[in-house]
Amino acid sequence: MRPAAELLIVLIVLGNLALLGSSRLTGLIRLVAAQGLLLGAVPLLARGQAWTAEILFLAVAAGLLKGVVFPVLLERAMRDAGIRREVEPFVGFSLSQVAGVAILAASFVIARRLPVPPGPLARAATPAAFATILTGLFLIVTRRKALTQALGYLVLENGIYLFGVSIGQRVPLVVELGVLLDVFVAVFVMGIAIFHIRREFDHLDVDRMTELTDWTP
Amino acid sequence: MIAALLAVPALAGLAAFLIRGDRPRRALLAAAALLHAGLTLACWRTLPAPGGWLGLDAPGLLFLTIVSLLFLAAALYALDYLAREESGERVDFVGGGPFSNAPEARFTGCLLLFLATMTAVCVSRRFGLIWVATEATTLTSAPLIYYHRHHRSLEAAWKYLMLCSVGIALALLGNAFLAAAGPELTMDLDTLLAHAGALQPVWLKGAFVLFLAGYGTKMGLAPMHSWLPDAHSESPSLVSALLSGALLNCAFLGVLRGLQVLSAAGLGDFARGLLVPFGLLSMGVAAVFIQGQADYKRLLAYSSVEHMGILALGVGLGGTGVFGAMLHAVNHSVVKALLFLCAGNILAAYKTKSAADARGVLRVLPWTGALWLAGLLAAVGAPPFGPFVSEFAVLKAAADQGRSFVVVAYLSCLTLVFVGMATTGLRMSLGPASRKVEARETPLSVAVPAALALAALVLGVWVPPPLRRLLAQAARTLGGAG
Amino acid sequence: MTDLLAPPLLALAGSPLLLGIVNKTKAAFAGRAGAPLLQPYYDLAKLLGKGAVYSRTTTWVFRAGPAVQLACALTAAAVVPLGGRPAALSFSGDFLLLAGLLAAMRFAGAAAALDAGSSFEAMGASRELQFAALAEPALLLSLAALARACGRLSLAGMFAAHPGGPAPVLAAAALFAVFLAENGRVPVDDPATHLELTMVHEVMVLDHCGPDLAFINYAAALRLWVLGALLLGPLLPRGTGPGTAAAALAGLAVLTGLVESATARLRLVRVPQLLVGAGTLAALAVMLARGGR
User: B94, B172, B175: which to substitute to probe chain A, counting the most A Cβ within 10 Å?
Assistant: First the structure.
């Protein structure tokens, strides 16, 4: 079990760093999809060998939604909007990667100070989960395109999911599915909003949406 | 009972998407709102026993009542509003470009689903469910903000969607922290309260910070409030009224649930110590931005930030402050709904949101003007309206505890807000009309705000005993003094 | 005694052969016959037989450069073990000495290039140092990750420890990028280019000739060997002899040839991103090394 868990964590963290370093939106969406598929396996690893039907169902549902459905929705939004790249983010791609390393280091420090509950996956996954959460926030803050921000939201959500599941949180299936449904609707609504933004503004640059301020008469 | 509370608006909302005719759909909206309000009031007779997934305790019932009655007011107003709205393409009076409305069926459906999700927040007994419901309120209300399909409302809707979703995601992390604090326990409020002593303090503190950041974003606490003025100023006025009066309270309930667990674990002082600075900061930020605010709907939005600050401060002070805060939640909702509905009338008549261009409201729209003036006085905390009583109760709590800094900061913020809002509001109400306006005050568009104004006035002089009992009970539940 | 002397002697004798293998692989991929495997030796012999010409604008810095580079490379060859055997020179913390030697070698090369006073060479030196500034953290972090994963501070100790987990693999991946960058191989620099504007390493040595150029080329070949041995060391199975390790190095040379044939050279502005990525991998390895224990 342990090498599998370790491999999973390393792949997720590498995915974060790759997300910070790439500019092509297709590549970003694929990376998020891969991360989502990996997350589908987390419930299976977190509970040791005792797989119940419930856990299997959750694993399949999460993997399918995070790994297939959300990326397809966002890819469709991307095609409708007709954009391919994140051009000139507020923080450059190399610098973002360096920030990613700093985020990772910070996550390790934070995770070591917290009394992480015992579990086959918890200790190794907690820093990776924090790093994923912070990576998502970083993407939302430093990227211009509405689509990249939506991707950042998904990454943030992935990190929270990883943390919740790896500590063996006892969440009833209904709530877990409710959370997934919420995120699904959120991505769906964001996709629609992206389409409208493209149609109304002829661009997807969030920093150029500045009509609403307090200081213009 | 609780299942019916959820099912009525949810089913009506889904039905509204399918109904073709405008008239039956509007009738459905009003009927669902009435039925929901009736069911809510029926809960006052016998409080359904809390426990399990759904349940109502005193704070839940209080906030549910606010939501339900405000929705009834908004729904009645909506009948008139939707009849007045022209369909088809028309000219945007700010940008000058053409725009059209979203389909009315979608608007009504989302409105009813919005009520269902807010009800769900109030009756949920599990942290996971509270989160799911709160995020769902964001998703059902974002289309409402984008009802008038133009640049500005789209910008506002996107900011609202993104900022609140990210904020609420932090609250989800807070849930996970709470789970980490006691991995053996279920995440149900009653279980957590009963076993609070066994929870790990580090995780609990982290969870509360995340709740405050997450639900606080949705509640509009500074510095996470930046979505609030945009969303409130760009959405249709009855939606602004619901966002400000009902939704912000629901978000606050999320924070309060966290506070309950922390208090039970003996960490109440930590939690309250965080609420006080956030409350004061919100009041301060609002006081600054209210000065010289050119857009009267934004003015009201910042006033909401200020009042949310008062709520957080009151709960943070503890003791009698909690009672004051609960009473203030009621007062603020009533007054803010009154003001936003009046603003809707002014906007419909003057076709501008600029306070400088909408002069002489009293002369052009005598009823609306009078109600607007009364609402403004109530919102800045002038007697004899309700907010004066509750703001005074919070002040008294601070003074009784000898926290002179809080008292001074609180009073200066209130004074600044008073000056800022009164200047703009009076200038709008009095004097000759600034432009040629044909007055169109329909009975319903005036009657609903009038009823709210009456409620604000009554609450200022007399709190009905059942409400007083409920408020006291809610305050005790939240660790304050009744 | 032979145990101690075998690795450095193999390095001295075999390093130009690695260049030959790389070039032969590339030629085979391009469908050419290519130069003979031993061509680098012939070139060195030819250069050593020539006289040197020095420009009047140069100073002693220019003359000392090649010798310093060769000295550094020779010492480095003595520090790095080959396979499971300890190196000729081994002590706790010797990996820092190795990094220092590589840095000194680069400094001597850049200083000599600047001393020539030509803008072309200055440009090359500037690029080389820019890339080095990014490659060096990746190198040091990779070595730190290995030291941490193995709990040893000497290279011989690290090569013998064989820790499990992801850290050595990540460190090796980062070292491969450093290996390509420091030796001026394709994604970073093209050793076969003929356009001065795009050159990095080659343009630095334009003014050197005769024995000086032979020194520099031989030092570069040694560096290829040293970094290759460093990259392979932790990955080779326990008890690998110097012979097998040398064969693995030859395999690495083939791999380098394949990479050079299969990839295009990166645009200059993209190179830092590759090296930052390598540093990121190395940093990740450092953090996981702790978690691995």
Answer: B172
Consecutive H or E run containing B2: helix B2-18
- Encode pLDDT of C105-145 as tens digits: 999 999 999 998 888 888 889 988 988 998 999 999 999 99
* ipTM score for this prediction: 0.92
8 Å CB contact between C230 and C101: no
- Burial (CB count <10 Å: 0-12, 13-18, 19+), residue C5: exposed
In a domain, B324, yes or no: yes
Contact A41, A63 (CB under 8 A): yes
Residues in chain A closer than 8 A to B293 (CB atoms): 214
Q: With 60 as the cut, is the pLDDT of residue A187 above it?
A: yes
Flag whether B478 is in a domain.
yes
Cβ–Cβ of A124/C280 closer than 8 Å?
no
Distance of CA A207 to the CA centre of its chain: 22
CA dihedral C32, C36, C37, C42 (to 10 degrees): -140
pLDDT for residue A49:
57
Look at residue C69 and tell me if it is in a domain: yes
Residue C287 makes CB contacts below 8 A (sequence gap 6+) with A104, A105, A108, A127
- CA A108 to chain B, closest CA, distance in angstroms equals 16
Query: Is C284 in contact with A101 (Cβ distance < 8 A)?
Result: yes
DSSP at C240: -
Could you say which of B154, B176, B185 has the minimum Cβ distance to residue A196?
B154
pLDDT at C290: 60
Range of the domain at C80: 16-292
C176 Cβ contact list (under 8 Å, min separation 6)? C231
> Is B353 contained in some domain?
yes
pTM for the whole structure:
0.87
Query: Does A97 score more than 50 pLDDT?
Result: yes
How close A3 gets to chain B, by Cα (Å)? 24
pLDDT at C95 over 60: yes
Q: Is residue C158 part of a domain?
A: yes
Domains: count for chain C = 1
B197-253 pLDDT, tens digit per residue, is: 888 899 999 999 999 999 999 999 988 988 999 999 999 999 999 999 999 999 999
Which chain A residue lies closest to B153 (C-alpha atoms)? A212
Question: Is A200 close to B151, i.e. CB distance below 8 A?
Answer: yes
Residue C75 pLDDT > 80? yes
Using a CB-CB distance cutoff of 8 angstroms, which residues of chain A are in contact with residue C283? 101, 104-105
**The domain containing residue B328 runs over which residues?**
312-482
B173 with A133: Cβ contact below 8 A: yes
**B206 is a domain residue:** no
